[in-house]
Design goal:
Elements: H1 2-24, E1 29-42, E2 47-55, E3 60-69, E4 79-81, E5 83-87, E6 92-96, E7 109-114, E8 124-127, E9 137-140, E10 145-155, E11 161-164, H2 166-186
Antiparallel strand pairs: 1-2, 1-10, 1-11, 2-3, 3-4, 5-6, 6-7, 7-9, 8-10, 9-10
Length: 187
Amino acid sequence: MNTLLKTGIGSTLATLAVAALGSLASPASAVSLTWNLQNVQFEDGGTATGSFQYDADTNTFGAVNIQVQGGDTGTFPTYTYDTFAFLDPTFRVAFANSSDLDPNDSGVRQLRLGTASPLTNAGGTFSLQLNLPGSNLECFNCNPIRFITGGSLTTNPLNPAPVPEPGTILGLLAFGSLGVLSRKSKV
C-alpha cells in the first residue's frame, strides 16, 4: 500500500510538472496602456481631456473617459465620450458616447483623433497629425464641426497594466502544488 501511495503521489507530481511546463512554454501577457490626451485644444478655445486604454497587439480599446468643454458651448456643450467607435487605416480613432451609437440617429457626436503613426505598446508621446483628412475634430455627424489645433496622446511606457494569461496563472498554481506535494511525500 505504501508503494501505491508513493506511485499515486509520483504520478500526481508528474502530471502537475507537465501541466506547469506546458503552461510556461509560451508565457504571454496582454498589455493595455493608458493613453492621456495632453494639451488638446479646439479652434474655438475648447479643450479635450481624459484618457483611454489601448492594447496595440490585440487592437482593443477600453476604459474610455474623455471630456470636452469650453469654446462654443452653444453648439458643443460639455460632453463625455465613453465608448470607442472605430479605428481606420490612417491611424485615426473615433470616440462616441455609448448612448449615441444608434445607427438611425443622424446626430451622432464624435471625437476623432489621428496620429502620424500607429499607437504602440511601447508607449511614448504621439503628436496629433493636424493635416490628416477627416481627423482631429469633433462633430455631430460632421456638421457642425470644430477642428483640433494642437495636442498629443501620451502614456508612460514604464507602467503598463499587464494582464496575465490563464496559462501563466495555471503554471504558477501547478508549481505551487508541486512544492506542497513534494514536501508531503518526504514526510
